[in-house]
Amino acid sequence: MHFKDLGLDPRLLKKLTHLGFDRATEIQRTAVPVAIMGKDVLASSKTGSGKTLAFLLPAMQRMYRSKPFTRRDPRVLILTPTRELAKQVFAQLRTLNAGTPYDGALIVGGENFNDQVKEFRKDPMFVVATPGRLADHLEHRSTHLDGLEMLILDEADRMLDLGFEAQLRRIHEAANHRRRQTLMFSATLDHEEVIDISSDMLDTPKRISIGYSNEEHTDITQRFVLCDHLDHKQALLDKVLETEDYKQVIIFTATRADTDRLTKELNERKLKAVALSGNLNQSQRNSIMSQFERVCHKILVTTDIASRGLDLDNVSHVINFDMPKHAEEYVHRIGRTGRAGNKGDAISFVGPKDWKSFKSVEAYLQQEITFSTIEGLEGKFKGLKPAPKKKFVKKKATDKKPSAPKKASASSAKKKTDKRFYENVAVGDNVFMPKKKRNVDVNSGD
Ligand code: ADP
Ligand code: MG
């Protein structure tokens, strides 16, 4: 379907033609007409299917077609879980709003707060932000959201995983009026937490899902390789990098420390690799991403900080050096390749330490996975047997002690306090943690 059949303003159509986009992707042709009618939308479609334009086009349409509620407040706010993704969305917005009076500001952690206050004074109509920093600005009263017309949450589930629920609710409260439209997008929106928050933030939304989040991505060839130990993984990685014909590759590790160690090893072997992790300062992060985008390096080693949203044309391969802890991150990690109809390759190493994560990925994908081998590097590890189920021994009624009250949702409580979880994935923006521990995450300064 051509964009012109979606009811878009001719000025937008002209821009799309100029950008070389003619046919709308499935998510675009489904979501755009609903969103330009003003309805709330909860939309999911696979990675690389064009969700960004699916929300930017209705936002731009609103600029062209309706009057602002106030002159001062931002009209559209787009939130993303990472600074890198915010920058990318902002760049895509700039291709659409260039030459119009509908200017925008990028408001992310790690950048100078006062410069951002000045940006707000220019009354931008679009704000693309990470939730932590935006909530700080609301606190500081650098901006107000009473006049906000559209709130867009990209990768909403990830913002919740990272502990930004409080900030999202704060932002929602600041813009909580009847005429606000809210759109949520992700490749994985089936979390319980997403359903909870969306029922509070969205008003009778239209649910759009193009395929299922666990459906096989036909443009990505997925392979899983069993490994015995770290040295074995390293040898496999060397072999893969030697034999695969890759343009650029992203290697995901479990922790920042693993990212640094692996990058060092690759560089010692003269394989030019760069590391992107949350403990770098923002200008280092910016320069690494821009170098990788310009293909100055062929290998990027990172953590789940880069699993979401990033759209890099030349990434032909994704390697999971370690399996992700959260099954849906697997879908997002491999989705850094095979985008916009291109083909990609994903290779995952599964050692004893990865077994539990692997099983949850397998369960999430609802597929029985067969393992591949790499010639000359076959290992001994064949997977772990499930732990035998504990036998339930019925106690005599007389033994029964009054039982302690059950703790509510132990697993979710654990998730919030698991420090490693934050250390591995921290994105540098006010990751929500109990006050005392907040300084543990030293990468941001905001
Ligand atoms: P998603 O958010 O679904 O992962 P993106 O919005 O990042 O996907 O888009 C993935 C790639 O597809 C981008 O490079 C984008 O420019 C391109 N793209 C988006 N819409 C179209 C379209 N209608 N035709 C061709 N390419 C498109
Ligand atoms: Mg996206």
Automatic annotation (TrEMBL):
Q: Which UniProt keywords apply?
A: ATP-binding, Helicase, Hydrolase, Nucleotide-binding
An example Pfam family from this entry, by short name, is Helicase_C
Q: Which CDD domains match?
A: DEADc, SF2_C_DEAD
Q: Which InterPro entries match?
A: DEAD/DEAH_box_helicase_dom (IPR011545), DEAD/DEAH_RhlB (IPR044742), DEAD_box_RNA_helicase (IPR050079), Helicase_ATP-bd (IPR014001), Helicase_C-like (IPR001650), P-loop_NTPase (IPR027417), RNA-helicase_DEAD-box_CS (IPR000629), RNA_helicase_DEAD_Q_motif (IPR014014)
Q: Where is the Helicase ATP-binding domain?
A: 32-207
What molecular functions are annotated in GO for this chain? ATP binding; hydrolase activity; nucleic acid binding; RNA helicase activity
Short motif (Q motif): ranges:
1-29
- Which residue ranges does the record assign to the Helicase C-terminal domain? 235-385
Q: What family is this?
A: Belongs to the DEAD box helicase family.
What is this protein identified as? RNA helicase
